[in-house]
Structures are given as structure tokens and as C-alpha cells.
């Protein structure tokens, strides 16, 4: 079973879906660490409730991305982490972690990449009047949401409002992410 760390900056509903899938036996992995750059994020509480060690750090207390990533790398290697799973982690991963976890970092993004990378992808999708909204799971590289695509699901926006589109995206994410990770880990 691969040992994984989930990185999250917010609510952590995708962390929850992954932790639940592990508990249900649908995803064969050991979730050994939850990392957040936002000590107040709700994901910290979720991790505690699931009995998984949360690790919160404040990037402002480090001189640079390389410095906090060096600290994180030590932490991850200490825990025997093999895969990093980004779940709403709102920072670019730098060379320090990319080289330590080559082809072992994945992300989920709320658009049909390569359309609408970056922040507020759902808002971007709606503002552009795009036909399709979607969810993409991809490998992480040095770019912003540019790594190779592992899985993608799209659906027509068809005049629906933001709340409805958001709900559908989250429902897809919570199913697609654990299923895609299971495929990835078993190949
Ligand atoms: C998810 O919709 C995820 O796709 C998105 O943040 C949300 C986190 O929700 N990620 C990005 O936008 C990354 N650029 P959660 O905290 O409830 O899992």
C-alpha cells in the first residue's frame, strides 16, 4: 500500500473523500500525513477527526519556497511518504519537492484543463461562457496546472448558475479523485 500525504489549503472535502475511500476499502493506500499552509483551515479539524496527523505551517515564517519545501521534504521522508496528493492546495510546487517526488505528485483541478488553469477555475469557466465545465486529475509539473492529464470528466454548463455548477463539480471530484488514485496506485 502506498503511503500518501494530502496537501490542502481549505475546506478539505476532497481530503475527506480520499480518507473515506481508504476507510471503505475502495482506495488501497495509507494516508499518513495531512499538510496545510493555512493553520486555520477546516481540513485540520477533518484530519484530527479521522485520526490522521495534521501538519500546519505558515509559509510567511520561511524565507522562500525552497526553504519551506526543504522542511516539508524532511517531514515527508520521515513519514515514508511516497505520493503527494494535492487537494485544494493553493500554491505552486517548486523544484525541491518536484525533484524529490518525481512523477509522484498529483493534483485535482475544477476545470476541463487545459482550459482555465489557475485560481477560481469555476468562475473563469462561467465568465467565459464556456460550454463545458469539468474536473481534471493530472500529474504536477513546474507549471500552473500544466502536467499530463490522468483523468477528466466534463459536463455541459447549459445556463446553470454558479452554485449548481459548483455542486456538480464537487460531486464529480469526490468520486473521481479516489477512483483515479486507486487506478494510479495499482498500475
Ligand atoms: C476543489 O474544487 C479543487 O478542485 C480546487 O479547490 C477545491 C478544494 O476543495 N483546487 C484548485 O482550484 C487548485 N487550483 P476542498 O478543500 O473542499 O477539497
From TrEMBL:
Q: Which GO terms describe its cellular component?
A: cytosol
Q: Where is this site: Raises pKa of active site His?
A: 145
Query: Which reactions does this protein catalyse?
Result: N(1)-(5-phospho-beta-D-ribosyl)glycinamide + (6R)-10-formyltetrahydrofolate = N(2)-formyl-N(1)-(5-phospho-beta-D-ribosyl)glycinamide + (6S)-5,6,7,8-tetrahydrofolate + H(+)
- Residue numbers binding N(1)-(5-phospho-beta-D-ribosyl)glycinamide: 12-14
Q: Name the catalytic site residues.
A: 109
Which parts of the sequence bind (6R)-10-formyltetrahydrofolate?
Answer: 65, 90-93, 107
**Entry EC number(s):** 2.1.2.2
Matching PROSITE patterns, A to Z? GART
Q: Which residues form the Formyl transferase N-terminal domain?
A: 3-180
This protein's pathway reads: Purine metabolism; IMP biosynthesis via de novo pathway; N(2)-formyl-N(1)-(5-phospho-D-ribosyl)glycinamide from N(1)-(5-phospho-D-ribosyl)glycinamide (10-formyl THF route): step 1/1
Q: Which terms in the Gene Ontology molecular function aspect does this entry carry?
A: phosphoribosylglycinamide formyltransferase activity
Q: Which GO terms describe its biological process?
A: 'de novo' IMP biosynthetic process
Keyword annotations of the record? Purine biosynthesis, Transferase
Q: Which InterPro entries match?
A: Formyl_transf_N, Formyl_transf_N_sf, GART, GART_AS
The Swiss-Prot or TrEMBL record describes its family as follows: Belongs to the GART family.
- HAMAP family, alphabetically? PurN
Give the matching NCBIfam families.
PurN (TIGR00639)
- Which PANTHER family does the UniProt record give? PHOSPHORIBOSYLGLYCINAMIDE FORMYLTRANSFERASE
Q: What does this protein do?
A: Catalyzes the transfer of a formyl group from 10-formyltetrahydrofolate to 5-phospho-ribosyl-glycinamide (GAR), producing 5-phospho-ribosyl-N-formylglycinamide (FGAR) and tetrahydrofolate.
What is this protein's record name? Phosphoribosylglycinamide formyltransferase
Q: Which gene encodes it?
A: purN
